[in-house]
């Protein structure tokens, strides 16, 4: 396969992992408006917490540069991969796809023959709509299935490669991803664009459903005085159920699951459903239970250990622990937070304590969505629902 000139717009988990992956065999330019991210990539320092990306930067020869200058890079590209954020707009009840559409508009204006591959998560029907709006058939959706902190690993060993165009061009892009992976024959599926968009949202919503199910099992066990781990172990021994995504938490969070479940629920407008809505509601109910369970200890000061969504991540977005903090404060509890990834004095009006020993002494209860080695000696002072030590 001949080398391609590829532009990746967005230096986040999705964009950076793809840029690193594809720059092994192709000329890749990564674009971001954040100059600090651009500088780090050019100096081979990962701006995100991902061990494999850091290792590739240290050990691999990559044909990768980064820039904030969008138009010149796009104008010379064969392929433009869009990996910009699509946050959920609660008012509009849909993803905010303005950043994706802005990039598409620039490509159509400056390099209309280039193939645009949208990796950002979008509503079902988005690709058809923007093809019509921009008068271009050179727009393809290809969902990503990456874990935060393991994004490059999941590109190197893909669970599946899906491209929303059942054509030679779609196969060519799938081949590009497969050639850069370390799997000899990763599963490849070519679909129409709308089906590919639905696959992404339904896959993440199923994962959210599984998280919600085991969290509700854990809530039941806690209220009834059962050994939650024994129950989960017994349920998970059924091979049809298995042991993945069964570790109780304070609720699902992060970049994908909260917004993707809400978007799928919005796409169900005028379509009968009950399960999808129940998943969204169950996640809020879990946070209510966790907060009330903590308050039942009657603490004077609640110490929250880390704001990150899960171990190995540096992402606070939609982290379930933030919802717990909001509920605790609404009930008048004093809350302090230990989060070494932040240099500020406060986070959302909550005091950040930089010294762990000081944090531990001041906390009547230490709340942790995921247990960590430094918490092992705190006994009954530690509050967590982490049973298996996994994410």
Instruction: Count structural domains.
Output: 2
- CATH fold descriptor of the largest domain: Rossmann fold
Mind telling me the C-alpha Rg?
22 Å
Biggest sheet, open or closed, and with what strands and sense? 6 strands, parallel
Question: How much is the average pLDDT?
Answer: 93
- Counted beta strands: 16
CATH class of the largest domain: Alpha Beta
Helix content: 40-55%
**Which class of secondary structure composition applies to the elements?**
alpha/beta
- Count of DSSP-assigned helices: 14
Percent strand equals 5-15%
Written as H for each helix and E for each strand, in order along the chain, the element string is EHEHHEHEEEHEHEHEHEHHHHEHEEEHEE
**From the 3D coordinates, which CATH architecture of the largest domain would you assign?**
3-Layer(aba) Sandwich
* Molecular shape: globular
CATH H level of the largest domain: which superfamily?
A: NAD(P)-binding Rossmann-like Domain
In the sheet with the most strands, the strands line up as 3-2-1-4-7-8
Taking pLDDT < 50 over at least 5 consecutive residues as the criterion, the unreliable ranges are none
Distance between the terminal alpha carbons, to the nearest Å?
A: 38 Å
């Amino acid at each position: 396969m001949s080398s391609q000139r590829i532009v990746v717009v967005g230096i986040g988990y999705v964009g950076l992992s793809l840029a690193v992956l594809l720059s092994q065999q192709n000329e890749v330019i990564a674009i971001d408006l954040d100059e600090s991210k651009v500088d780090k990539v050019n100096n081979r320092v990962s701006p995100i917490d991902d061990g494999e990306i850091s290792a590739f930067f240290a050990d691999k020869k990559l044909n990768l540069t980064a820039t904030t200058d969008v138009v010149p890079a796009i104008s010379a590209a064969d392929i433009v991969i869009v990996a910009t954020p699509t946050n959920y707009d609660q008012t509009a009840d849909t993803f905010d796809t303005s950043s994706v559409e802005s990039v598409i508009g620039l490509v159509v204006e400056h390099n209309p023959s280039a193939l645009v591959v949208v990796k950002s998560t979008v509503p079902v029907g988005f690709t058809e709509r923007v093809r019509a709006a921009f008068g271009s058939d050179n727009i393809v959706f290809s969902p990503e299935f990456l874990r935060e902190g393991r994004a490059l690993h999941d590109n190197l060993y893909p669970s599946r490669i899906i491209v929303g165009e059942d054509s030679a061009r779609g196969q060519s892009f799938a081949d590009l991803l497969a050639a850069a992976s370390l799997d000899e024959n990763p599963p490849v599926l070519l679909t129409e664009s709308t089906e590919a968009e639905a696959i992404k949202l339904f896959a993440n919503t199923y994962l959210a459903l599984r998280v919600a199910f085991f969290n509700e099992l854990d809530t039941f066990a806690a209220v009834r005085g059962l050994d939650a781990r024994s129950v989960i172990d017994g349920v998970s021994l059924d091979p049809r159920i298995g042991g993945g995504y069964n570790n109780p938490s304070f609720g699902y969070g992060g970049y994908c699951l909260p917004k993707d479940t809400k978007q799928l629920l919005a796409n169900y407008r005028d379509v009968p459903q009950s399960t999808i809505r129940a998943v969204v509601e169950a996640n809020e109910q879990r946070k209510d239970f966790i907060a009330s369970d903590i308050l039942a200890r009657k603490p004077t000061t609640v110490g929250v250990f880390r704001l990150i969504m899960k171990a190995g991540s540096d992402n606070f977005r939609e982290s379930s622990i933030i919802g717990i903090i909001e509920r605790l404060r609404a009930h008048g509890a004093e809350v302090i937070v230990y989060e070494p990834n932040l240099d500020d004095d406060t986070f959302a009006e909550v005091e950040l304590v930089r010294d762990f020993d000081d944090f531990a002494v001041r906390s009547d209860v230490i709340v942790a969505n995921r247990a960590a080695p430094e918490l092992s000696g705190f006994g009954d002072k530690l509050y967590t629902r982490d049973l298996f030590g996994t994410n």
